[in-house]
# Entry
Amino acid sequence: MQFETRWATADPERIPRYATRWATADRERVRRYVADLVALDLDVIVAPGNAIAALQRATRSVPIVFTQVSDPVGAGLVKTLTHPGGNITGFMNFEYGISGKWLELLKETAPRVTRAAFIRDSSIAEGPAQLGALQGAAASSGVELSSIGAQDAEEIERNITAFALSPSGGVIVPAGRVGVVYRELIIALTAQHLLPSVASDRIFVTAGGLISYGPDRTDEYRRAAGYVDRILRGEKPADLPVQAPTKYELVINLKTAKVLGLDVPPTVLARADEVIE
# Structure
């Protein structure tokens, strides 16, 4: 996952400068870069969700604008969505109602699915809430939902292989570190076991997954740039409400559908923002 920080200034007498760090999903590297950047004379930091907890521990004064955070209140980043109350605000990448949409798309594209495995990412605070929302949707759709652990590659391979021993299964890959770091492994396993999958991020589908439905990440960063501008002009993160996504995108990989023996319904294709053929 990208960890991107911008160093700029609100003082017209100072020349704006920018510093960027890329930490992917390496937690140790994230901690090291956070310490490095907080030691600078920063006016504002922009960072994705995997770096925010470390930034919060490192500074309570430097303004921070986050992206790709699912539950900022539950994670303890802000007091409320409307009044963050501290030095952190930003843009959520998730509303729990989207969980039902994942299950709906999975069933609509692969009607034979009666069992779904939710790949649980224990490293994120939002995991239990994501699972809870999915359980409600599964109960009304007649799908048996199970949660599988995903601490590392070995556990992912073991659990997906075990899940695939019974027929009519599908896989749900929620927002979080696991779906990014281990996406190639998950894609390979779902293809090997002919398991239809739905994920929250389009990179899962461009890498070979079946379907993704989630926020437009580019739009999220554009909106974050607007908050940076407002902070540099004197507004406080405490007064800037956390905002939910406003643009979602549906991406479908027809090559993967063919491998899985699926005919994607025209009604689904008509709603797609991008179709990979």
Summary: Strands lie at 45-48, 64-69, 88-92, 115-120, 144-149, 169-173, 197-199, 211-215, 248-253, 274-276.
